[in-house]
User: Which sequence fits this backbone?
């Protein structure tokens, strides 16, 4: 055996044993302080047939928390399974660390998005950094090599004095962790809105790949197999509420103050990845689980619950950073960069060798038993003796009351009419509005932020920010790869949570489609306010219903994700923010389409129908600060048709860009800003007035460029698919955006666009 | 027989597989070497890849410099073994004393990743033989501590001896005299802060401009055999 094997060297403490618990039923326990309700505490007593020990109470309280048990959301999330579309692509569905999708040629891809919202408000750098670390371990635990990360971020108002602190810390944290870990950041979003003041959202996504036969699951089977935590030592970080137990049960000898937010060490995570992948390669692991939220409590109970026997753990053998930790604290600690493997005794020596090679501490702390219970010992005294399923999977389920908010009718009736929101009438006014949009916080250049992320490491990044999707090559020999996009417009959710979730999915699906990929599967991060507020709960229920319905129509199953509730300050909740990630496959990444690549003389086509839809859009938000009306109509068949047209003509289409935030005006301006050519267009043959053409946010639309002699072929394909198309104009050498409208000629040079667009984010951060 | 070029992996190396891919693309065989070993396996040249060896703890490259394999590299480099240190590898070369100066925190205090224009100033080192002096290329730069510093005398000496291998066109990090890459007296050891190994194929990099570093070493080694 190798590695450093120090364990707690303090003398055994006075602990609350199972034996004591059985004989002292009347001991008062701090269940309420640990967040349990009276009936939940009683249920624990019923399950055990006695009062829980303090260690058992710690485990149940954290595993039955909203964060770990999904007790408020579970009844709704079941729809993702019930409405799951028929697909051959899904290899592992919801319930595991992450879903796994078949992308062909024997390759499996796993991806998931997860929130780290609350920690990122308290300590932005570490909160964001450990958010990245946590999702990477989830992907690793499936047997995959992590390949790339993305981040979906939401911050408060750009002008708020606290915003630079949060933005600077979060971005440095996402970058600091991912860069040092060696995973490229291939995209995401950053949105500013006053509703996220005090409740920033940090949603991190990781994608990984493996061969089909390498898929691993979190289960402990095989009597006599060894339980081996490895990675960082366990410290007192992220213990949170359990300190109540420590102070009540024991003398106050331990450190009194615990950091609420864990501290990340990406270097250790890199070693963890390499050592774990080596174990997978040599087939040394029977089951594996990462240690994330709820730490050892979660890993041991989930591994045992998913297995076919019991498990015995000697907690005093767990390597510690702080020898004064109590058994309850060790069970609860959320110290980062830890994994737990279940290993056959024949393989343990090799596992230890691999860990020593990478300077990773590994220790055998227990084994799989033929019993039915998870038993935890502390210096030979039994402190936990529970059926693992009751901890990990049979937590409470709430049917929380919900109802449609009374104020929603008024909000939906408040359409951005010309009376409420005066529209630009002349070309000069339209130009001014385009410039204001392009220099607004949500549409300006993200370079200040994305330049802090390494997008090149590993050498397989085919597209990253600012492209519509991140594209990663999986197989160097064949070029097989994936495209991923993460999207959401919370304002649409505020107008209609059912439509809002579907619009988030639509946008992510469209972004993947315009890169030439075939959308396959979905991951979601559902960020909402308090589930105890029936109106928020209604928003949540509607969003889940909308997403499940739309996934069924699009044929893209939800493979996993995360729910983050209680994102609110006092009575004010954030906008419903269901961030949706769509993953698609590209048979050969060399055929991918980006927003670059057009040639001077290429035709500029608008595909899709433009309706008068401004509610919740960027024009109403930036120009009028208005939020009201009906969200844009969802049109999933049109999204599918658009995807099919683009995919079917990826060799003719020289560049493509989806229309979403800010509509056609923003899409065309971005084409000019992101290339060394310009666009000369005309709305003469357009189906709507110039203002609608420019700023509507109707769905299922994209701007594509094709060589002049391919225009007819692509337009015929659109017609066949039931999609309107319009020949807007040409790619020109002059670096400007020029549009002839019935209100005059819009002409904005690249320099005019670039000034506000490039300077906005640095100005917010200055 | 093709040249054999070693790529050393330290704990925390991140661009080692990229460097090995670039070595192969340049026409040589890549030999993966482990920091804790001491056998250079008879390689003809060595690449120290980018990353965060030992988590950049203490100081970038300060711990890696003491790796057993680095002891061998330092000795062999003094006898003429060509060595290319990229990013963290450049930092390790400075810590090892194979190159003068040091890399410090970027002047704007942020990590920066961008496509960077650099001018090749010296086309006669072991790693730049296939470039023409004055040639401008675009390769990624990505670092948090990439600001090259040295005292004025050292900088004057590097300039006088034509040992500044590449200069930034638009300084990304406050490097003195826009230095992006330097070489040693024998022009066999090169340290470069931007990443040529990330620019060997326009599919995955901004250009293929970086490939010439890896063909250059093959050219250099072939000339040695021929000489």
Assistant:
């Amino acid at each position: 055996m190798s590695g450093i094997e120090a364990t707690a060297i303090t003398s055994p403490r006075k602990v609350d044993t199972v034996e004591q618990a059985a004989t002292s039923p009347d001991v008062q326990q701090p269940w309420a302080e640990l967040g349990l309700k009276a009936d939940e505490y009683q249920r624990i007593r019923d399950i055990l047939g006695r009062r829980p020990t303090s260690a058992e109470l710690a485990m149940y309280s954290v595993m039955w928390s909203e964060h770990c048990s999904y007790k408020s959301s579970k009844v709704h999330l079941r729809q993702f399974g019930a409405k799951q579309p028929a697909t051959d692509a899904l290899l592992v569905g919801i319930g595991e660390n992450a879903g796994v999708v078949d992308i062909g040629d024997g390759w499996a891809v796993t991806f998931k998005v997860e929130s780290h919202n609350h920690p990122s408000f308290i300590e932005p750098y570490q909160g964001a950094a450990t958010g990245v670390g946590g999702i990477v371990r989830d992907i690793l635990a499936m047997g995959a090599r992590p390949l790339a990360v993305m981040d979906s971020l939401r911050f408060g108002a750009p002008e708020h004095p606290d915003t630079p602190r949060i933005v600077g810390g979060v971005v440095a944290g996402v970058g600091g962790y991912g860069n040092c870990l060696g995973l490229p950041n291939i995209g995401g979003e950053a949105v500013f809105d006053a509703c996220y003041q005090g409740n920033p959202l940090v949603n991190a996504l990781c994608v990984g790949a493996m061969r089909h036969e390498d898929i691993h699951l979190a289960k402990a089977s095989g009597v006599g197999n060894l339980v081996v935590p490895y990675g960082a030592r366990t410290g007192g970080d992220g213990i949170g509420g359990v300190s109540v137990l420590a102070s009540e049960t024991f003398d106050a000898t331990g450190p009194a103050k615990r950091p609420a937010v864990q501290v990340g060490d990406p270097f250790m995570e890199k070693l963890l990845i390499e050592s774990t992948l080596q174990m997978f390669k040599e087939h040394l692991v029977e089951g594996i689980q990462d240690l994330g939220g709820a730490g050892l409590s979660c890993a041991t109970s989930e591994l045992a619950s998913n297995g076919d026997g019991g498990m015995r753990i000697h907690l005093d053998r767990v390597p510690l950073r702080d020898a004064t930790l109590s058994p309850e604290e060790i069970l609860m600690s959320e110290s980062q960069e830890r994994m737990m493997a279940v290993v056959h005794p024949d393989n343990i020596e090799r596992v230890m060798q691999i860990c020593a090679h990478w300077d990773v501490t590994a220790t055998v702390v227990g084994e799989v038993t033929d019993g039915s219970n998870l038993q935890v010992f502390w210096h030979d005294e039994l402190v936990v003796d529970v059926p693992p399923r009751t901890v990990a999977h049979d937590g409470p389920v709430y049917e929380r009351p919900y109802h449609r908010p009374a104020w929603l009718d008024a909000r939906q009736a408040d359409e951005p009419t010309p009376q409420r929101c005066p529209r630009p009438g002349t070309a000069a006014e339209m130009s001014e509005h385009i410039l204001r949009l392009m220099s607004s916080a949500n549409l300006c250049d993200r370079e200040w932020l994305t330049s802090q992320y390494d997008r090149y490491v590993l050498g397989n990044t085919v597209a990253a920010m600012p492209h519509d999707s991140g594209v990663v090559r999986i197989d160097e020999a064949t070029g097989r790869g994936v495209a991923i996009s993460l999207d959401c417009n919370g304002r649409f959710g505020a107008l209609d949570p059912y439509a809002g979730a579907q619009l988030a999915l639509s946008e992510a699906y469209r972004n993947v489609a315009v890169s030439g990929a075939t959308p396959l599967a979905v991951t979601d991060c559902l960020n909402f306010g308090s589930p105890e507020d029936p109106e928020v709960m209604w928003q949540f229920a509607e969003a889940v219903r909308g997403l499940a319905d739309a996934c069924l129509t699009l044929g893209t199953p939800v493979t996993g994700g995360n729910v983050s509730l209680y994102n609110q300050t006092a009575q004010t909740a954030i906008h419903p923010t269901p961030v949706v990630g769509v993953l698609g496959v590209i048979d050969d990444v060399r055929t991918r389409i980006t927003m670059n690549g057009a040639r001077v003389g290429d035709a500029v086509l608008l595909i899709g129908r433009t309706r008068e839809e401004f509610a919740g859009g960027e024009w109403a938000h930036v120009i009028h600060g208005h939020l009201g009306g009906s969200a844009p109509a969802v049109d999933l068949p049109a999204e599918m048709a658009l995807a099919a047209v683009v995919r079917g003509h990826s060799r003719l289409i020289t560049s493509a860009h989806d229309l979403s935030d800010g509509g056609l005006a923003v899409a065309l301006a971005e084409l000019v800003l992101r290339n060394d050519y310009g666009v000369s267009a005309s709305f003469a043959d357009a189906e709507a007035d110039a203002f609608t053409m420019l700023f509507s946010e109707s769905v299922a639309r994209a701007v594509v460029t094709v060589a002049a002699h391919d225009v007819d072929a692509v337009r015929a394909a659109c017609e066949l698919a039931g999609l309107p198309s319009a020949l807007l104009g040409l790619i020109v050498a002059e670096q400007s955006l020029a549009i002839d409208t019935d209100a005059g000629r819009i002409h904005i040079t690249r320099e005019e666009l670039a000034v506000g667009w490039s300077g906005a984010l640095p100005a917010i951060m200055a | 027989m093709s040249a054999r070029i070693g790529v050393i992996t330290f704990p925390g190396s991140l661009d080692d597989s990229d460097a090995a891919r670039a070595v192969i693309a340049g026409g040589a065989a890549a030999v993966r070497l482990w920091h804790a070993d001491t056998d250079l396996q008879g390689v003809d040249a060595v690449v120290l890849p980018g990353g965060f060896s030992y988590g950049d703890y203490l100081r970038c490259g300060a711990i890696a410099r003491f790796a057993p394999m680095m002891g061998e590299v330092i000795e062999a480099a003094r006898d003429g073994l060509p060595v290319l240190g990229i990013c963290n590898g450049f930092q390790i070369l400075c810590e090892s004393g194979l190159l003068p100066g040091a890399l410090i925190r970027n002047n704007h205090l942020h990590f920066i990743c961008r496509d960077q224009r650099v001018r090749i100033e010296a086309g006669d080192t072991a790693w730049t033989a296939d470039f023409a002096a004055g040639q401008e290329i675009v390769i990624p730069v990505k670092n948090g501590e990439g600001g090259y510093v040295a005292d004025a005398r050292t900088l004057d000496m590097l300039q006088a001896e034509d040992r500044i291998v590449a200069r930034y066109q638009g300084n990304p990090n406050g490097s003195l005299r826009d230095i992006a890459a330097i070489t040693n007296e024998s022009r066999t050891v090169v340290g470069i802060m931007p990443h040529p190994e990330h620019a060997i194929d326009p599919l995955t990099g901004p250009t293929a401009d970086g490939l010439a570093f890896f063909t250059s070493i093959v050219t250099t080694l072939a000339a040695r055999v021929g000489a």
